[in-house]
Amino acid sequence: MRNLLQDCQFNNCMHLEEPGCAIKAAVIAGDIAAERYASYVTILDSMNE
Ligand SMILES: [Zn+2]
After folding, report:
1. What is the C-alpha separation between 23 and 16, in angstroms, rounded?
2. How far is the CA of 16 from the centre of ligand 1 (A)?
């Protein structure tokens, strides 16, 4: 998962709603399991609090 996140072209991308995000595209394409992305978002949420 960490390597996949680094595939994103944007250094500061949160991989949430950014247009052109490689991670979002990979989730939609099925290259990243939706549940793995969901857990990433959950971790991100907890870090933002
Ligand atoms: Zn991204």
Report:
1. 9
2. 7
The amino acid occupying position 45 is D
> What separation in Å is there between the alpha carbon of 4 and the centre of ligand 1?
10
The answer for 13, left when phi > 0, alpha when psi is -120 to 50, beta otherwise, is beta
pLDDT per residue over 3-36, tens digit each?
A: 666 778 788 898 998 888 999 999 999 999 999 9
**CATH code of the domain occupying 2-48:** 1.10.40.50
Question: Looking at the whole model, is its pTM more than 0.90?
Answer: no
- Domain regions of the chain by residue span: 2-48
Question: Ligand 1 mean position to 25 CA, how many Å?
Answer: 9
